[in-house]
Structure formats: structure tokens, C-alpha cells
């Protein structure tokens, strides 16, 4: 997602709208912004008196909530060599929520839950010999 236009640019553009004989379309071309952005800034200034960008809304909520995270933690503790598909199936059975592979992976990473057993360097060397 692109960052909002700077407050400085917004002020210069709207000053040009207020003081210049140019049309909004011409000002948009001059400042390399869309006409729609100009109209939104004008409406925002009229409604609130400010042209500052709105704060980030927070994005999409994660598919795994706190209770689901506890459930995942329990499953990983019991048996940490399950595949993502197996975790997805278990989660759907218990919580009636279908997650994608990437959503399940993000949940496991966010909860810092390793799915695979770590092998020691000594153990892997002796297995190869």
C-alpha cells in the first residue's frame, strides 16, 4: 500500500487551488496528483478544517484469535511435526474457521511456534556416518 501524500504537498496543492486561476484538472497535472485526490482533500478540508492524512486503520484482523492461538500452542506442544494442512484441518474442526496455508503459517510464526523438531549438530552428523 502506498504512503499518503505529505502534508506539505497537500498544502501547496490546495493553496494553488485557492489562489490560482487554473482548473483543478490543470493543477492536478501540474503537481502530478490525481484529480480525485484533490477533490477528497477539498472535501476533507471543508468537513474537518484539516487536510492531514487519516491514521492507518489497522488492516485485516488475523484469522487466529487468542483462544485459537492457545489451541495451536497446545497442538504444537503435543505433536510438532504436523503439516500446515493438518493444522488447518484440526483448526477447522475445532473452531469452524477455515484458514489458508499462509494464514496458518503467519499464525504459527506470530506465536513463535516451531513446527519441526530441531536436530542437534551432533545428531545429524552421526546419522550421516
Mean pLDDT value: 87
Using the CA coordinates, give the radius of gyration: 26 Å
The tally of strands reads: 0
Helix share bin = 55-70%
Strand content: under 5%
Report on the biggest sheet. none
Overall body shape:
rod-shaped
Unreliable spans are none
Q: Gap between N and C termini, in Å?
A: 51 Å
The string of secondary-structure elements, in order, is: HHHHHHH
Q: Quickly give the structural class.
A: mainly alpha
* Number of helical segments with 4 or more residues: 7
Molecular structure report:
The chain has 129 residues and is mainly α. The protein has 7 helices and no strands. Helix content is 60%, strand content 0%. The chain starts with 6 loop residues before the first helix and ends with a helix. The model has no long low-confidence stretch (mean pLDDT 87).
Entry keywords:
mainly alpha, 129 residues
Give the topology.
Layout: H1 7-19, H2 24-31, H3 35-48, H4 66-78, H5 84-95, H6 101-110, H7 121-128
Helix pairs in contact: 1-2
Give a brief rundown of this model.
The protein has helices at 7-19, 24-31, 35-48, 66-78, 84-95, 101-110, 121-128. It is mainly alpha-helical.
